[in-house]
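Suppose a colleague, Dr. K., hands you the sequence of a protein chain of 152 amino acids and asks what its three-dimensional shape might be. Before reaching for any lab equipment, you can write down a predicted structure in token form. Begin with the sequence itself:
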Amino acid sequence: MQKPAFDDIFMDLAVNLAKRSHCVKAQVGAVLTKDTRIISIGYNGPPAETHNCDVEFPVEGCERDSKGSCSLALHAEQNAILYAVKNGSSIEGSTIYVTLSPCIACARVIFTMKVAKVVYLNSYAEYKGIPKDEGVEFLKKFGVEVVRYKKD
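The predicted structure, expressed as tokens, is then:
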């Protein structure tokens, strides 16, 4: 029996976590790992104990900000990183698996927190209809390994 690769396990988990999102526009999941161990998990949505968009705004979703993004949600990467740090986990040198490549804001957080590698499933640029993955380019420019996930 062939054992699944850790990349497959962690990305499968990120895909399943995305299903927990209360966002009606996009569901994104993230798994933060280090040395084949899970440090933290996250999915996009409003801060805990505030509200759930799929309940309060089930048809149109929450209000958009000036850039057309959700005005209320934390991104999956932010949730995973914030939870890890809040609980005292060291994330320097870690890998984050995410179902959507990081936006530029998340890329800055990932870089600042010294995450070493990002593995993503789908392109943020393709999802948003913009010309390039700014977050991916930023991370690569400053030495973070970024890989688009492809299941073997």
